[in-house]
Amino acid sequence: RRRRGGAPSARPGLRSRSPRLGAVLLAVGLLHVGTIAGFTFLSLRIEALGGSPAQIALSSGLSAGIEIPAMFVMGGLAQRFGLRVIFTIGALLYALCLASWTVLDAPLAIVATRAITGLAYSGIVVAVVLTIATLLPAELQATGQSLLQTITFGFAAVVANVLGGLLYEGVGHVAVFGIGAVLAVGAAVVGWLVFPVGPRGRASPPTAHLDEPPAP
């Protein structure tokens, strides 16, 4: 349809340009609800087990120390194995760590698992950013990335913290981490079905996004 004077009408929306985008955002949202809840209440769990403030800080520091260098490797792995594989493995690694937090009762053992979450985080970031770049044309990239940030650090964070707090206080850490693990597995399943097999063009690590704060 054309506007008056023969000018073309507005470009098709996100749904018509990329029917899979909604399912991709669903997978990302499920994963972040589970992981954000896990990260938020992990420090309370470490403290409850007798862990020190230094161990709580080390938990976050170890993950961040793994995330940044791993970013530069994940782009090449995505090119070799595909975005679907990278996202699915990252989500399953998160699920493994969340499930382990339901049973681990030694603070240092929990801290050690944060090296795995660092790897998972870097894979998820690379897979999701390159997926948006693959699914959407250039003129919709900014909109797609904005939607991604809204889902991950907006909607998912609110749901994770509100429901996570109610569960942690009312039921305990097993409910928070266990449900988080289930959500991560669900995200892996959805991601396997809807993420593209490989990136469009060269898959380089998204260095433009390295200024984002790492996962807690």
Structure report:
The structure is a single chain. The protein is mostly helical. Helices cover about 75% and strands about 0% of the residues. It is built from seven helices and no strands. Helix 2 runs antiparallel to helix 5, helix 2 packs antiparallel against helix 7 and helix 4 packs antiparallel against helix 5. The C terminus is likely disordered.
In short:
The chain has 216 residues and is mostly helical. Helices cover 75% and strands 0% of the residues.
This entry's quaternary arrangement is single chain
Overall radius of gyration: 19 Å
Number of strands: 0
Largest sheet: none
What would you call the structural class? Answer: mainly alpha
Which consecutive residue ranges, at least 5 long each, have pLDDT under 50? 5-11, 201-216
- Average pLDDT works out at 84
**What distance lies between the first and last C-alpha atoms, to the nearest angstrom?**
48 Å
- As a percent range, the share of helical residues equals over 70%
What percentage of amino acids are in beta strands? under 5%
Note the run of SSEs as H and E.
HHHHHHH
Individual helix count:
7
Shape: globular
